[in-house]
Amino acid sequence: MSDATPNEISPAALLARQDQGKDDVLLDVRELNEWNLFRLPNAIHLPLARVSGSASEALAHSPDAEIVVYCGRGARSAQAVEMLRAQGYNATSLAGGIAAWIDAGGEVEE
Fold this sequence. Notes:
By secondary structure, the protein is α/β, with parallel strands linked by helices. It contains five helices and five strands.
């Protein structure tokens, strides 16, 4: 059973989507110092403070894509999902953030 809410995707479900070849946009809303430590491969960086104003610029190449938003543990990404959905994006939060992703065996890059 998943701990994810309707606005979330579990790390296991995201790993399965990637195994199926789904091309979700991964959006990291952590601060730059956190991003510089490690991140999900192919993620786009847009700190939470800039989501409301800069999302259209950062996501312009994929307006209809499914966006998976993540942060350290899931709180900031949940806020970002609300902002993105209000702008018309199809966004979900990675349940438990990058910490849960790593615990589930997901890859990160430095």
